[in-house]
Structure prediction request, 466 residues.
Amino acid sequence: MTGTGRASRKGWIEGWDPEDEDFWERTGRRVARRNLAVSLLAEHIGFSVWSMWSVLVLFMSPEIGLGFTAGEKFLLVVVPTLVGAALRLPYSAAVTRFGGRGWTVFASLVLLVPAALTAYFVGRPGTPLWVFLLLGAATGAGGGNFASSMTNITGFFPRRHQGWALGLNAGGGNLGVATVQLAGLLVIATAGPAHPAYVVAAYLPLLVLAAVLAALFMDNIDAVRAEPGAQREAVRDGHTWVVSLLYVGTFGSFIGYGFAFGLVLQSEFGSTPLEAAGYTFLGPLLGSLSRPLGGRLADRWGGARVTLWTFAGMAAGTGGLLYAASRQSLPLFVAGFTVLFLLSGAGNGSTYKLIPVVFADRARREVTSGGDARAAFARARRLSGAVIGIAGAVGAFGGVAINLAFRASYGGVFGGIAPALLCFLGYYAVCMALTWAVYLRRRDTGTGPGREDAPLPAAPEETARV
Prediction:
């Protein structure tokens, strides 16, 4: 069956088949790229709202009537990270039921209320901590937008282009961390540290814009619909949890460092709000831009190889941070964190590239054993979408763990960053070993992908690299 791309009466495009090269060149490419552009913008804005607390805590001081301790400020960035992580799985499932267009409109508009309330209360001296914790939890819904957007975009693009498309979509969303931090820097530099509400208020019209553009220019496609039990089947698959653990190390590092970097600079080096804001946006910016690069490198060299190199670099960067902290060298410290952002972004792209390829590889093995090719690859696509949602949710919890580690490290007997960094270094070593053992070591059992240079039967429409 070839792709038709015909709209049904319910507003869903039926017969969407991007693997059909004629359909892709004739219609699919244009429609997919239009949806990618709008989805990327909406995800970017939602990501900014989710991560705005990494900026707002830099403003909070006794001078504006919000004199919270370092531990309380770390708690304020933990809560939205936790909620955003928890919502990723239901958001991923929701887009398969309501479609990319419908869910993007809802997900953008639902952030208006907590954003408006945050803009109001953050400008009121004496507001208690619990109010900000509730608002942080509500704005955490912006973190779920990532999972719904990624699940949606997976259905639009053929497997041979998914590394690029997912990397670009995710990188544009991740860029929201740098954007809101740059907005915070501009507010502090121009209006001073007494006006955090300006940062939040700037996003209110942008949320409306995202909803309007999604309603006008996005589509719902039947390819994104999940068959009943897809997530349950994915949960029982071992590769789901291997990839999720790797994603904890890449995306968890990116979002955890993105939320905590400014606070770490204040706690470790006594940086002023302006100094901290001046450094914080650079790392997330480079990490976001490197994510599509990671996807591109994975398309060429294989997701497993690029992921392994990434974790090796992140381990070395963490060692550099330990040295910089022991020497109290701010330039080396900032440089080390910048390297970690850059590598974690590239690792995000390469790790996500593993997901569709692992299941396509399994489908080819089923076909070689006499299975039906179309059924095998349809199942692979269905599982890929489910695993993307699960891995995205689990990976985001890595950001929670990083912020909790920083909070415990600075609040404990050490009173410094070294214990947290040693924990991260150990986890990166585990991820390196896991990547090699599961995806790079030659396997003779046939139960998983072998080495990337091992001969495999060709798939009907692609030759993929693990």
Q: What stands out?
A: Confidence is low (pLDDT under 50) at residues 443-465. DSSP finds 17 helices and three strands in the chain. The chain has one domain: 16-440. The beta strands are 6-7, 12-14, 220-221.
